[in-house]
User: What shape does this take?
Amino acid sequence: MAFYGWRPYVPVAERRRKALREMEKRQKQGQAVSPVSIEGRTIATTFWGKAWCENVERYSDYENRLPRGRSYVCNGLVVDLQITPGKIQALVSGSHLYKVALKVAPVAKAQWKSICNDCGGAIDSLVELLQGRLSKGVMERICRQKQGLFPSPAEIQLSCSCPDWADMCKHVAAALYGIGARLDRQPELLFRLRGVDELELLASAGKAAPLSKQAPAAGKRLGGEDLSAMFGLDMAQSATADAGVAGRKPAKKKRAEKAAAAPKGKAKPKKKTASTQRGKLSAGAPKSLRPAKE
Assistant: This one.
């Protein structure tokens, strides 16, 4: 017997059949349907999915309604779940098919900048980030309550078409858990939802790289003009003069080197001149060929 103001109870098997029929109907109409499918009783298995669910469960605002939501999502009653920047829309099968609409505030710019600065240098690649292969410090910073990447209750507006007076009804709870399951496969949707770019975490990592691995910035290199101004030298003239001096040796230095190379104890032979050569030729020639005395 149904009580006033409440829908009659519908068994889980019947609700599941309704969910399947609704999905088939929408697909035939050409609508994109993205149901939440969970194997077994574990909603999320990866870092991002589990972190989302744990964030929802840590707030007392939600704790009373969450168990029914877990049951709904594990039984495949979330017919459709769409995650877009700042919005979550879901269809949840209950006694009827209910529409869930959630609005999630974007991460504040100062808060996101703080996250990027704190995590800079600790994330090596986008694959590592999306797979959740992060250090303990990075995980704790991203999951920090009210200061991390996951929204607090004050940052989420809840709405459902069911007659339940509570903002956090079981259909909304099912949608929230469905997000955790979806992040297992598409963790990048969390960044889209919060209005931030995950690549900025990698950009911060590049800025925080060790100085020994970084080339000097173009604006910090000293050129010739900078050195001239610093030391008061004309670098262009000095460079030309140094090149000329390096290209030749002084004459005195060459003579000194030749003198040092000559054997000691022997007089250096005198250089023969043209007059000496003519004298020798005259002394050794026949009288007829000797030059006449003047």
